[in-house]
Amino acid sequence: MDNFTFGITMTIVGMGSTLFSLWFLTLVINLLKRIFPYRESDEKGKEAKS
Amino acid sequence: MIDALLSGLSSLVMGLGLLTIENIIMIAVGCVLLYLGIKKDYEPLLLVPIGFGAVLVNIPLAGMMEPGGLLRHFYDAGVMTEIFPCLIFVGIGAMTDFGPLLENPKILLLGAAGQFGIFLTLLLALLLGFSQLDAIAIGIIGACDGPTSIYVTSKYAPHLLGAVSVAAYGYMSLVPLIQPPIMRILTTDKERKVRMEYPKKSASPALKIIFPIVVTVVTCIIAPMGTPLMGMIMLGNLMRESGVVSRLTKASENEITNVVTLLLGLCIGATMEGAAFLKPQTLLILGLGFIAICLDTVTGVLFGKLMCFLTKGKINPLIGAAGISAYPMAARVVQAEGRKYDENNWLLMHAIGANTGGQIGSVMAAAIMLSVMKGMGIG
After folding, report:
1. Is the peptide bond before B158 cis (omega within 30 degrees of 0)?
2. Segment B301-313, tens digit of pLDDT
3. Which pLDDT belongs to residue A50?
4. pLDDT digits (tens, 9 = 90+) for B248-293
5. How far is B207 from chain A (nearest CA, A)?
6. Which of these, A36, A31, A37, lies nearest to B218 by C-alpha position?
7. Which of B73, B258, B300, B302 qualifies as a cystine partner to B320, CB 3.0-4.6 A?
8. Which residues of B86-114 are buried (b: 16+ CB within 10 A; e: fewer)?
9. What pLDDT was estimated at residue A48?
10. Mean of pLDDT over chain B
11. Residue A28 with chain B: CB contacts under 8 Å
12. How far is B160 from chain A (nearest CA, A)?
């Protein structure tokens, strides 16, 4: 593969995939936040631990 | 008897005769690194062992990097096997709080934009005539992440390890000087004064424990070649958040990271042997590394401006500059810059969120690079 094709492929695939992966992770985190919401008891537990 | 004495004495001065001008220059460079670390406090944990390693490897006849030499043992055992960068990642994971990122997940996107410099620099390196593998190693300086740079470079271009590591760690310590002018050029006064709301609810402890497991599974399925890096950083974070292995967490944060940093620094210094390091190519790599960090900042801030526009002014574009991996330095730079224009603007936690996003983003970008390379059958 010549350098130009290699460079363009890596740049487009690399930038696109990095952005897509992290966008997908934000969706996963938002989903996890719904499944494991913050509760008042978490704060109390934290205080008790400290 | 006299012959024996003379030959014994001549062996003591033989080293002096073999001292080349390259060795002398590199010993001086090692001393400059030591000066910067000791006197100027620029990343002393790294610059002191790197500088001393550079001095050691340039002493004629010492054979520190010859087969059987002390530094060669460290290098073969830790760098060539990629163990050192992975162990450092366990420590980084154990030290990182992903809480601010979990509270505002959309700023993770800034961690992706902050990596675009890697790919643009790769393109630039290819245009300047570097080979494909060398260009990958040069581009990764833009990750602004020492262990990731070392991991990728030792895999594809071990002969560039000295220049790439010095550039990666050097520019990381120069982030407070490199980023602010770019941030000022690319943002308006109004944008710099944007105040961001703090989320009302924090991330739950359960979410903080599940997060590293989910990130590992999701990202490693997408880019399996990055599993050693992402796996280790998330293992360290899981140990931290679970709270059940505090001894291991503390050891990862302190003893393991300290010992590995010492050995890694010496190994990087050991790659700075005069004849191999003093080439025009090294200067070119240092220049491209600088461009990489600048491009990261440019793309991060521009993406921040886009998010500011899309959210109707709810995101301060300055935090885009924190989407690189230099943690927590880049976040502090954003906080300081924001307060210059509005003393009561507290951007730190948002910037920390973007900064931890940058850590994930840099590893992800490297993992994608490695996986694409494998897919192309290169390297």
Report:
1. no
2. 999 999 999 999 9
3. 54
4. 999 999 999 999 999 999 999 999 999 888 999 999 999 999 999 9
5. 6
6. A31
7. B300
8. bbbbbbbbbbbbbbbbbbbbbbbbbbbbb
9. 58
10. 92
11. 214, 218
12. 19
Q: How far is A5 from chain B (nearest CA, A)?
A: 10
How far apart (Å, rounded) are the C-alpha atoms in residues B285 and B140?
11
pLDDT mean over A6-26? 94
What is the maximum span of chain A, computed from C-alpha positions, in angstroms? 62
Alpha-carbon distance of B196 to B206, in angstroms, equals 26
- Torsion sign across C-alpha atoms B81, B328, B168, B212: positive
The letter for the amino acid at B78 is G
In the prediction, which pLDDT does A44 show? 60
DSSP class per residue in A13-50: HHHHHHHHHHHHHHHHHHHHHHHS---HHHHHHHHHH-
Burial (CB count <10 Å: 0-12, 13-18, 19+), residue A3: middle
A32 interface with B at CB cutoff 8 Å = yes
Q: Which of B173, B129, B163 is nearest to B37 (CA)?
A: B173
Tokens representing B356 are: 């931890």
* pLDDT (0 to 100) of residue B199: 79
| A-B contacts at Cβ under 8 angstroms | 117
pLDDT at B238 over 80: yes
A49 has a pLDDT exceeding 70:
no
Judge contact between B153 and B334, C-beta under 8 A. no
Tell me which DSSP letter residue B200 carries. S
Helices (H) and strands (E) in chain B, counts: 21, 0
- Name residue, tokens 């080349």: B20
B329, B337 Cβ separation under 8 angstroms: no
Question: How many angstroms separate the CA atoms of B58 and B52, rounded?
Answer: 10
Token reading at B162: 């000295």
Model pLDDT for residues B318-364, shown as the tens digit of each residue: 999 999 988 888 999 999 999 999 999 999 999 999 999 999 999 99
Among chain A residues, CA nearest to B220: A21
Among A15, A23, A39, the residue with its CB nearest the CB of B119 is: A15
CA-nearest of B84, B31, B83, B21 to B56 is B31
ipTM: 0.87
